[in-house]
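Figure 2 data, in text form.
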Amino acid sequence: TNMKNDSGKIQCVPGQRICEATGTQVAGEGTYVFNKYIYASLAGQVTIVPQKDLEVVKVTLGIHGTVLPEAGSIVTCRVQSVNPVMATVSILCVGPQKLHTPFQGSVRKQNVRDHQIDTVEMYNCFRPDDIIVARVLSLGDMRNYELSTACNELGVVTAHCEEGHHLVPASWTTMRCQCRTEPRKVAKVVPPKTMT
């Protein structure tokens, strides 16, 4: 699929593989490196900034007209708080489009994953400030969207440990950085279909 928008810029979603990380092509803001590839940690547009002998790959949030999340929309959210029954999030983007004003949403315990639902521990799935990708189930009350991460491709895409280091996926249920491994409901990074 071709992710270019009308202006010819390449749009991406969090967790999308952008390109290979090489000695001259390095990850900038809005991206991270995993297994020698540069991935997007934000939804937005890919820009490549030449710096001396390097090309810095960045993802910047494109500001677009307001798009409303609807049932079935894939949304990018920042986790605000976590309690034993749900995670409260603010919805930042719908698909690759950034919202002018974030909407409220929540992921209830029963919508975190599609197996062993009764053993879900919310704090082992999400932490405040994590960036997650979720699907909108319905528009709840008071503009509070009901969200689900019960799919391999949904869950945490960007997180930091308590020391502030960037965590990268280590498995379905853990992310790690230079100092520790932390539990999460990790979104499986799906290699994009080849660009045409």
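Caption note: The chain has a mean pLDDT of 85.
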